[in-house]
Design a protein that fits this description.
The chain has one domain (3-149, 187-261): Vaccinia Virus protein VP39 (Rossmann fold). It is 40% helix and 20% strand. The protein has 262 residues and is an alpha/beta fold. Strands 1, 2, 3, 4, 5, 6, 7 and 8 form an eight-stranded mixed β-sheet that branches. The protein has helices at residues 3-13, 16-21, 24-37, 58-63, 75-83, 124-137, 151-160, 165-170, 193-200, 221-226, 229-242; strands at 46-50, 67-72, 91-95, 109-114, 138-150, 190-191, 205-212, 254-261.
C-alpha cells in the first residue's frame, strides 16, 4: 500500500476541519499560527498553501480578500475545501503533491504555507524536496511557514501516557535515545529541533522564529475543554507569552518554523 493510500484512508474518515475550528487545542494552534502569519500579510500579497487540507487557512484567507493558491494531496479534503467557496474568492485549487509542485511557477508567492506535508514525509530526502519546492515557488525575501509534529510530546503522551511502551518497543518504533521511528502506515513523522535545523541547512533560508503552536495545551487537554471562557483567555495569554521559549519548544506537539528565502 502506498503512503498516499494510507493518508487518503485516514483523511477520508478524519474531521480535519473540526480539529482547528471546534476543540480548544485546535483553536490554540490556529490562533497561534494566525498570530505569526498575520503580521506578514500585505494587501496585495500572493499566498500558496501546500497541503491545504479542508481549507481552514486557505479558504479563510481567500475570503479575507487575499490571492490564494491551495494545493492538496487528498481528493476528499479538496472536495470539502471547494465546497466552502461561493465563487467570489480569488483562489485557485489543485490536487497535487508537495514533492512536485509542477503547477506552480518559480518565485511567485510572497508567503508559502507548508502546514501539513512535513507531518507525513518520512525520509530526509523527501522532507528536503518538499522544502525546496516551497522555496522555489516563493519570491526572493518571501516567507515560508513550515509546521512539524514534535518527538518528545509523542513519547510523553502516547508512549507513556497511553501505556504504549511495550507495543512501540516490540515494533521497534523507538530508538535507544527515544527518537520515534515512523513509516507511512503510522501516518505521522516526529522530529526534534535539531532535525529541523539540519533540514533548513539544505535550503536557502534564514529562520525568523521557531514557535510552539499548541505548547502545553495537549498536556492539559481535559482541563482545557472544561475551562470557562475567562480562564481559557488566560491560558491563551500564558501560551502566547511562552510559545517562543526555546527551552520549551521540543515539548510542544506542533511547532511552526518561520523562514525567509535568501
Amino acid at each position: 500500500m502506498s503512503s498516499n493510500t494510507f493518508l487518503e484512508n485516514y483523511y477520508n474518515e478524519y474531521d480535519e476541519d473540526g480539529r482547528l475550528a471546534s476543540n480548544r487545542i485546535g483553536i490554540v494552534e490556529y490562533l497561534t499560527t494566525r498570530r505569526y502569519l498575520d503580521p506578514l500579510l500585505t494587501k496585495d500579497c500572493k499566498i500558496a498553501e501546500i497541503g491545504a487540507g479542508t481549507g481552514r487557512y486557505s479558504v479563510t484567507l481567500a475570503k479575507e480578500g487575499y490571492d490564494v493558491t491551495a494545493v492538496e494531496l487528498v481528493q476528499h479534503n479538496l472536495d470539502i475545501l471547494n465546497s466552502k467557496l461561493d465563487g467570489s474568492e480569488n483562489i485557485k485549487t489543485y490536487l497535487g503533491n508537495a514533492l512536485d509542485l509542477n503547477m506552480l511557477e518559480d518565485h511567485t508567492y510572497d508567503i508559502t504555507l507548508l502546514l501539513g506535508p512535513m507531518y507525513h514525509l518520512y525520509s530526509k530526502e523527501d522532507k528536503i524536496t518538499a522544502l525546496k519546492e516551497a522555496v522555489r515557488t516563493t519570491k526572493q525575501r518571501g516567507y515560508i511557514l513550515v509546521a512539524y509534529c514534535m518527538n518528545e510530546a509523542t513519547v510523553i503522551q502516547y508512549v507513556f501516557g497511553c501505556n504504549q511502551l511495550k507495543s512501540v518497543m516490540d515494533l521497534n518504533m523507538i530508538t535507544d535515545d527515544w527518537k520515534c521511528i515512523s513509516e507511512p502506515k503510522d501516518l505521522f513523522e516526529m522530529v526534534r529541533v535539531e532535525d529541523i535545523e539540519r533540514l533548513n541547512a539544505a535550503i536557502p533560508v534564514e529562520r525568523i522564529k521557531l514557535v510552539a503552536t499548541d505548547g502545553a495545551s495537549r498536556y492539559i487537554r481535559e482541563h482545557l475543554e472544561e475551562f470557562d471562557d475567562k480562564t481559557f483567555e488566560k491560558w491563551l495569554s500564558y501560551h502566547f507569552a511562552t510559545c517562543e521559549r526555546q527551552d520549551l519548544i521540543g515539548a510542544t506537539n506542533h511547532s511552526l518554523d518561520i523562514l525567509r528565502k535568501v
